[in-house]
């Protein structure tokens, strides 16, 4: 599981920064399933992808299909896992709690696999996953 916690607005610049970090971890092409957020479809991201087509390829989910997006399961897990006894008092505390959550999940591959094993996200495990 690879992640990036950021406190600024999610835009094309953040997406390109994430993509650059992501491809740096692999020696083979990365196939990334994304929703149709404007940052994912922006000119800047398309230009970045064109320069890195041998390293990464985006696969877009159908319009408004949150049930197909494993990220939605990750987000729900994160919200359930945040401490209920100590609420973050500011953005920095929330970012730190979020990082702790993702670092824990990186050491729990059985839970991460579960994000992809549900009835609506199982397509990611198929040989040709993008056949909606």
UniProtKB/TrEMBL annotation:
Top-rank lineage group of the source organism: Bacteria
Short name of one Pfam family: DDE_3
InterPro entries, alphabetized: RNaseH-like_sf, RNaseH_sf, Tc1-like_DDE_dom
Span of domain Tc1-like transposase DDE: 3-94
Name of protein: Tc1-like transposase DDE domain-containing protein
Species per Swiss-Prot/TrEMBL record: Streptomyces sanyensis
